[in-house]
Amino acid sequence: MRVIIVGGGKVGAYLAETLKEKHDVTVIEVDIVKGYALRQALPDINIITEDGCEPLVLEGAGISVADLVLAVTGDDEDNLVVSYLSKFNYEVPKVVARVNNPKNRWLFTRSWGVDIGVSSPDIIARIIDEEVTLGEVVTLMKLRASDVGLVEITLPENARAVGKQLADLELPPETVIVTVVRSDAMLIPAGDTVLEKNDRVLAITNVSNQHALEEVLGSK
Question: Beta-strand (E) ranges in 83-160?
Fold first, then answer.
């Protein structure tokens, strides 16, 4: 799958590192300093230090053949511009946009080209609301798409994923682990993060992959 990530901050860098093993990833970051840091950290990924809101820049990144665009800059206006161009000018099949200000959540709809709008406060609020469901795979949020959800899996002591690094797990397609909750602390996952018993793993995935993800983590 060909993925374009617009925004090379912490969110964009994490997504690029997570997706690069299985997908063709390009990152667009307007800040030269951040772009240089990305090249140092991710030398095998195509990094473009230009404004991702410009059609010519998107075209140079290969948006005409992209399967997925992730608009994850720290500016909601930029994310909406990227989403609109991606969907309506270049007909990208799937567009995911980051919502920085929860008050702007209502704008991130398909009329602006956004298939999935992701807001961190929304996710955290839903996690709190669903505390009673720990130990099971549950759909926490539909994320504005009928086939995508945020799911939670709690690892028992004998889970096959316990003691393994995230990079060593063969995750189902269209699955990204977004956080690991351990002893009430939320960890930002990386490839070398080692899972422990009682970890609560949260992932965005196609809902049809929930059982496959459960099998990989060994939570049954």
Answer: 94-99, 116-119, 138-141, 148-154
The sheet carrying 24-28 orders its strands as: 46-48, 24-28, 2-6, 68-71, 94-99, 116-119
Strand partners, 25: 3
Backbone torsions φ then ψ of 55, nearest 5 degrees: -55, -40
Q: What is the pLDDT of residues 49-71, one digit of tens each?
A: 999 999 999 999 999 999 999 99
Give the distance, in angstroms, between the CA of residue 154 and the centroid of all CA atoms in the same chain: 20
Domains of the chain: 2-114 (3.40.50.720), 123-217 (3.30.70.1450)
* Residue 215 and residue 173 in contact, taking contact as beta carbons nearer than 8 Å: no
Question: Which tens digit of pLDDT belongs to each residue from 165-187?
Answer: 998 998 888 788 888 888 867 78
Q: Give the residue carrying structure tokens 């807001």.
A: 119
Structural contact between residues 195 and 189, judged by C-beta atoms closer than 8 angstroms = no
Instruction: Say what the pTM is.
Output: 0.61
